[in-house]
Write the C-alpha cells for this entry.
Amino acid sequence: MKLAALTWVELHKLALRPRTWVSVALLCALPVVVAAFLATSELAPRPGQGPAFLSAVLGNGQLYPAAALGIVVPIFLPVAVCVVAGDAVAGEAQAGTLRYLLVRPVGRTRLLVAKLFAVLAFTFGAVIAVALVSFVAGTQLLGTRPDALGTTTASLSGTSLSPQELLVRTLLVMAYVSVSMLGVAALALLLSTLVDSPLVAALGGLALLVASTVLVGLDAASAVHDLLPTRYWLAWVDLFRDPILWTDVQRGVLVQLAWAGVLLAAAWASFTTRDVTS
Amino acid sequence: MPAVPHRRAAALRWAAVVAGTALLVTAALTGRPAWSAGGSSSPGEDVQQVLARAAASADVPFTGTATSSGALGLPDLPRLGDVAALVGESTRTRTWWQSEQIWRTDVLTATGERGLYASGGQLTGWDYERDALTTGAPLTGARLPRASDLLPPALARSLLAGSTPDAAASRAGGLGERVVAGRLADGVRLRPDAQEADLSTVDHADLWVDRATGLPLAVDVVDVVGGPVAASSFDRVVLGDPDRAALAVPAPQGATVRSAETDVAAGAATAAPWLLPSELAGLPALQDPSSAGAVAYGTGLLRLAVVSLPVDQGRQALRAAGAAGADPLEPSAQSPAGAADEPTGGAETALVRAGALSAAVVVVPGSRDDGGGRAYLVSGAVQPELLSRAAEQLTTDPPERRP
C-alpha cells in the first residue's frame, strides 16, 4: 500500500474515533471557561503573574487566540498529543490488530510514517481548533477595543499592530506551538513501538515533559537547559515583540527538530526490528 | 529471514541512530567553533590596549540580547524599583545602542516587556503589563541602577571608570581569547592592588572584549570566596548601527501616560542637605561632589557610594536596620587609640551585609542650629573596615551645608 493511501487510512481512523473529538473539545473548553470568568469578573492577573496576555485581552479579544494557546501549551496540549501518539502503534498491539495489519503488504517504515502524519495532523488540528474557538470566545465574551477591528492592537513593545499583522503573528504562534509538540510526540511514538500499552507510552511522553520542566527550573542544570524540549515552549511570546525576537523561536524549532529526529529514528529502528507477536 | 543477517541489520540501524544522536549532542554542546567567529582574526592586543578600547566603547553601536545576573540579595523595598531583581536575579535584555544618548533596552520577561528609551537627554519607560508609559526621567545624574547599567559594555566601563587604562593594566593580566556570542574576544582579568585587596570583597573581574571593535561582550565579577557578584554576557550581538525604527519611542493607544517618579537615590541627591568631600577614606570622588548629594568614590575595583540623607530619614533607616538585627560599625584600624569606647567618632551606625555588598547607615548627632545632625548611607562591595573609615571621616571632619 502506498504511503498516501496508508496516511489517508490513518487519518480516517483518527477522525472516526470519538476520543479524538473529545480531547479536542476539552482543549477548546478550557479557554472558553477562562474567557467566561474573565468577562464576568473583569479581573485579570496582576503584572508578572498568570499566563501571558491575560491582562491584555480584557477589552481586546483579538489577542485571545494567542493567550488561549499559551494556556494549553504547558500541560493540556502535550497530554492530548501524548495520548494520541502513545496509542499509534501500542493501541494496535493492545487490540491485537498490529500483526494482522503487518501481514498485509504494508512496510513497517511506511506504516510508522503514516502514524506520524496522523499524530501531526491531530496536533495541527487541535491548535487550529483552539485558536478558532478562542477567537470567537474572545471577541464575543471579551469584546474588542472600539478602534481595534479597524486599526490597531499594541505589541508587547507598545507599538501598533494592524489586524493583518496581528493575524500573521497569530498564525506564526500557531505554527510554533505545533512544532513545540514534536519532542513529546516523538517520544510517545517511540515508546508506542516498544510497549503494548498505549497508557504506558503516553505516560512516558508525559514523564519527559515533567522531567524537562523540572530541569528548566533548576539552576544547577543550567548546562543542559538549552537542550531540553520544554526550554523554549514559551518563546511564542517573542513573536509579539516589536521587532520580533527570533532568537529563541529559532532555537526552539531546532531543539524540537533535534529531539524529534533522534526519537523518530529510534522509533524506526525499534519498529523495523521488533518481533510483532500481538 | 535468517536470524544472523536480521540481527546485523538491527544492529546497523541502532548504530546509525546512536551515531546521529552523538553528532547532534556534540554539535549542540560545543557550539560554533572559534574559527567561525565573527570579528577580526588579527593577533590579540596587549592588555593596556584592550582596556583602553573597552573604556572608550560607549559610542560603538550594536544590537544584541544579553543576560545579566547578580548575587546581591537585597530586600524588595518600596521606591527601589527593580533594583533588588537586577542585582539579585537573572535579567534578560534586548538592546539597540546608537550612542550613550540614543539607545533602547528592553527587559524581556516570560509574560511581557519593560522598555527604556533614551533620546533627547531623557528616558521614557514602557511597561507592557501595566500598560503604562513613563516619561521625563533624566538620562544623567544620581539614580538607582537600571537594566542598561548591567549590559556587558556598561558594566565593564563602570569597572574601568576609577582608573586610567595604564593604571588598570598594571593590575590586570591577559586571559587569552574565546568566542562570546559568536565573536572573537580578548580576555582581561582585573584585580585589586595589594592595598585595595584588604578593603574589597571583590577578588577579580574578568572582561571579554571584542577584538574587532573593543566592545566588552562579557563581564564576570567574582568575590573573595569565589562566588559570583555580578555576571553579564551577550547571547547574541550584531555590531553596526541599530534599526532606527526600533529606537522610536512607542505611543500606545489607551496606555496610561505619567511622569517619571523620582527614585530614592535621585530624591536623596536632590534633597541632600550636606556637601560631600572630594576624597573619602582615601578614595577620590568619581563625580563632582558639589553637584550631587550622592557620590561614588573609588579606584580600581574598589567602589564606595555615599548618599547624604535628611537626618530624620537617617534615624528611620537606623531604627529599621537595628530592628533587623544590624550591628554597629567597629572602629576602623586607623582610628585613634581609645576610640573603641566611642565608635566612629560618636556617630550612631548600623552595618548591613548582603553577600559581597556592605552598607552602613551613619547618623551624626548635632545641635538644633546644626539641623539636628547629619546622616549618610555608605555602601559598596567592600569590607566593613572601609565603611568605618568613611564613617569616621564624615563624622569627625564635618562637611559644609549645601548652598
Q: What stands out?
A: The interface with chain B takes residues 47-53, 55-56, 145, 147, 152, 154, 156-160, 226-227, 234, 237-238, 241-243, 245, 247, 258, 261-262, 265-266, 268-269, 272-273 of chain A (CB under 8 Å). The beta strands of chain A are 153-154, 160-161.
